[in-house]
């Protein structure tokens, strides 16, 4: 029995073979030609979560669909399982609105005998049980892959029908919450982007006691901010623990026993894959040496500076072919327009309110994701 279980269920789970509960397991092939319209042709890239995104599908002729690819004609509730490539193990479900459709050889078609347990089987195929099976069975060549016999032979433990339904319904509920949360975040990010574009193009202006603020003045970044460097290396963190945060290219990393800055500041990634990423860092914290610490000059608003830096196209200042790099001496020459300090504060307050809401929603999403991860690790054997 699993570590976590719904009350009222006591019988032991039984080991079953995927091939024994399936009426059909096969895969498609690549046609000779594609067309602009016709029958949808699904690839791994077409899968968006567990759904098939029609905008990511190719098209084939009806004659091809019914002829040379007739064995891989898809039906409603077929499960698609990636058996080749970097995203091996990705799972999708064929819905009625995507049909008629066909698929290629990188996706296995799993047609269950009992359509009522599809959701449960999809969660099994996404669980650590399948991930472990893939690691143990995978064939590594030009690209990792599983064959159809291995898909047939996949064995897992399963409860009785009503417990399967209970588990699937509960996990689907969390999945729906995650999907809804992602939509909320997408809307807020679009809202933030739209307002930033309008504000920094001066299409949207703020007023002071019903009077418009003065015109914006053109400056260079080096006129409104200063840069400080860090000598902390990622390797040195292994031996350090403490009460102060340290940030890297991906954000907060861990706590260390000292800090470089007393107050909040902006950091910019200057080395590596995340070059140009801008973050707002809390006070009493530090950054790795691959980040610049940026602070405003004079009476300029830190939070205004943070949102302003997000509008800078740092890519044009990149150097280096193997490891991209940007230098303050280069990007500090960027010409920007800024308002007076009072309008800066109004802009910062307005955008910060959206940013705080966005961070709150991201935290909720992370909690849902952690909850789902915990359940997937403990609700299956």
Topology of this structure?
Elements: E1 14-17, E2 22-27, E3 39-42, E4 47-48, E5 51-52, E6 58-60, H1 62-66, E7 79-82, E8 91-93, E9 101-103, E10 107-112, H2 118-126, H3 128-137, H4 148-153, E11 155-158, H5 161-200, E12 207-208, E13 211-212, E14 217-220, H6 221-224, E15 225-228, E16 244-248, E17 251-256, E18 265-269, E19 278-281, E20 285-287, E21 291-296, H7 302-309, H8 328-331, E22 335-338, H9 341-378
Parallel strand pairs: 3-9, 16-20
Antiparallel strand pairs: 1-11, 2-10, 3-6, 4-5, 7-8, 7-10, 12-13, 14-22, 15-21, 16-17, 18-19, 18-21
Question: Could you characterize what this model shows?
Answer:
The protein is built from nine helices and 22 strands. The chain is α+β, with helices and mostly antiparallel strands and 381 residues long. 26% of the residues are buried. It has helices at 62-66, 118-126, 128-137, 148-153, 161-200, 221-224, 302-309, 328-331, 341-378; strands spanning 14-17, 22-27, 39-42, 47-48, 51-52, 58-60, 79-82, 91-93, 101-103, 107-112, 155-158, 207-208, 211-212, 217-220, 225-228, 244-248, 251-256, 265-269, 278-281, 285-287, 291-296, 335-338. It is elongated. Strand 4 (47-48) and strand 5 form a beta hairpin. The strands form eight sheets. A four-stranded antiparallel beta sheet has the order 2-10-7-8. Strands 15-21-18-19 form a four-stranded antiparallel beta sheet. The longest helix is centred in the middle third of the chain and has 40 residues, at 161-200. Helix 5 (161-200) runs antiparallel to helix 9 (341-378) and helix 7 (302-309) packs across helix 9 (341-378).
